[in-house]
């Protein structure tokens, strides 16, 4: 999304697609970044701004809050649907297509049971967990979309 406001060295903007979050704006200056919720105005995240500078940025967000609403901040983020639609594997990759059309692809090495399974075992999956999980009965393996979207799993105690 384009910049909605420039104030001194600050750029205030929002992304075109950040569903499932309350209305907010991002503020950058050089390599510093902050995120502010708009209703009510409050700091969501700070990456490097000093306390003094954050107060200035917050005041700027408060004073210009109505601009963001006029530009459609609350209406352009489509709802996501992170339920499983389809699962495919190759020799080294797991791909999960979600109901909203996104595809998550991760290396099988992250999941040793799947990595060491036969192609037939990998194909024998079913949707579980209210649509958000995948279960491989033959392997006693379960994954969910939340974990897949988050990234690499933590090492197990045997591999740490």
What would you call the structural class? alpha+beta
Major sheet: arrangement of strands: 1-2-3-4-5
Helix content: 10-25%
Low-confidence stretches: none
Question: Could you explain the architecture of this structure?
Answer:
This protein is α+β, with helices and mostly antiparallel strands and 160 residues long. It has two domains: 3-70, no CATH class; 84-150, NE0471 N-terminal domain-like. 21% of the residues lie in helices and 36% in strands. It is built from five helices and eleven strands. The protein has helices at 51-63, 65-70, 112-115, 119-123, 145-150; strands at 3-7, 10-13, 24-29, 32-38, 41-47, 84-89, 93-98, 103-107, 126-128, 133-136, 141-144. It has a five-stranded antiparallel β-sheet with strand order 1-2-3-4-5. It has a three-stranded antiparallel β-sheet with strand order 6-7-8. Strands 9-10-11 form a three-stranded antiparallel β-sheet. β1 (3-7) and β2 (10-13) form a beta hairpin. The mean pLDDT is 85.
Short description:
The radius of gyration is 21 Å and the shape is elongated. It has five helices and eleven strands; from the N terminus they run βββββααβββααβββα. The model has no long low-confidence stretch (mean pLDDT about 85).
List the helices and strands and how they pair.
Elements: E1 3-7, E2 10-13, E3 24-29, E4 32-38, E5 41-47, H1 51-63, H2 65-70, E6 84-89, E7 93-98, E8 103-107, H3 112-115, H4 119-123, E9 126-128, E10 133-136, E11 141-144, H5 145-150
Antiparallel strand pairs: 1-2, 2-3, 3-4, 4-5, 6-7, 7-8, 9-10, 10-11
């Amino acid at each position: 999304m384009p910049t909605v406001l420039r104030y001194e060295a600050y750029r205030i903007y929002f992304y075109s697609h950040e569903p499932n979050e309350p209305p907010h704006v991002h503020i950058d200056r050089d390599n510093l970044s902050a995120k502010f919720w708009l209703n009510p105005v409050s700091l969501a995240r700070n990456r490097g701004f000093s306390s003094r500078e954050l107060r200035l940025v917050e005041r700027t967000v408060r004073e210009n809050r109505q601009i963001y609403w006029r530009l459609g901040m609350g209406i352009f983020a489509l709802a996501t649907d992170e339920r499983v639609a389809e699962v495919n594997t190759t020799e080294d990759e797991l791909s999960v297509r979600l109901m909203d059309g996104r595809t998550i692809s991760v290396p099988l090495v992250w999941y040793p049971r799947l990595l060491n399974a036969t192609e037939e075992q990998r194909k024998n999956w079913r949707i579980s967990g209210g649509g958000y999980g995948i279960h491989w009965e033959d392997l006693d393996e379960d994954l969910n979309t939340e974990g897949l979207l988050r990234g690499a799993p933590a090492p197990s105690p045997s591999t740490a």
